[in-house]
Amino acid sequence: MDLHYPVVFYCNHAYWWDGFWSQLCTEKYFRQNLYIIIEYQQLVKHLFFTRLGAFSIDRSRPRSAVHTLDYAAKCLAEESGRQNALWVFPQGKIEHVDKRPVRFFNGTASIVSRVLRKTGGIYLVSVVSRIEYLGEQRPELFLSFRPPERITSADYSGVRQLTVYMRDTTTGHLDWLKEKIISRETDDFHIAVRGAESINRKVELLKGMFTLRGKAGEEKP
């Protein structure tokens, strides 16, 4: 990506932890100026999200919602030594990862429209997440990023059209990730963070240690 242009990561919203993953990815891979839009009710209950660069949107108050969209566009368009990045969840609320049809609000596309009035372009990146229990006692989180797409004023076709495009992209991206996991085609995934050992791993390690000790005892004359 050309770091002079801001980027919007638009994501499905299936888990309470989604905001934390944006910080993890930003610190580990991107080193950008991070901003996150979180629904007002959640931010009120969990103010520590503001330390991650989060601010709220309250769709029940139209004037407040418009102010949030303006503020998001202002943050993205500001000059900075690092790329400005916004993580947003256009579903607007937590929905099951397999719920269909996926529904998006128009706010993300409205932010893009506002940014294009101030800059020559903006990147859009589809990000999807899925948590699964596979061969471990602890769950595994899978994150998938599509390549960045640069949007310019000439490419912009309107709020509704862009919303539909992002919604359909996310739906296809989610289905692709699900099939990859079901078929166990995950060898090309990179491990970003490894958590504490699962109980099954600890048991397997202990069994291995006792097996080695037993064999060592059998080999003694």
Short account of what is shown:
The protein has helices at residues 18-30, 40-45, 62-77, 107-116, 159-182, 199-219, and strands spanning 7-11, 33-39, 54-57, 84-88, 122-132, 140-145, 149-151. The chain is α/β, with parallel strands linked by helices and 221 residues long. α3 (62-77) crosses α4 (107-116) and α4 packs across α5 (159-182).
Description of the molecule:
By secondary structure, this protein is of the alpha/beta class. It has one domain. Helices cover about 40% and strands about 20% of the residues. It is built from six helices and seven strands. It has helices at about 20-30, 40-45, 60-75, 105-115, 160-180, 200-220; strands at about 5-10, 35-40, 55, 85-90, 120-130, 140-145, 150. Strands 1, 2, 3, 4, 5, 6 and 7 form a seven-stranded mixed β-sheet that branches. Helix 3 (about 60-75) crosses helix 4 (about 105-115) and helix 4 (about 105-115) packs across helix 5. It is globular, with a radius of gyration of 21 Å.
H/E element order: EHEHEHEHEEEHH
Radius of gyration over C-alpha positions, nearest whole angstrom = 21 Å
- The number of domains is 1
Count of distinct strands: 7
The helix-and-strand class reads alpha/beta
Query: What value does the average pLDDT take?
Result: 87
Q: Assign a percent range to the helix content.
A: 40-55%
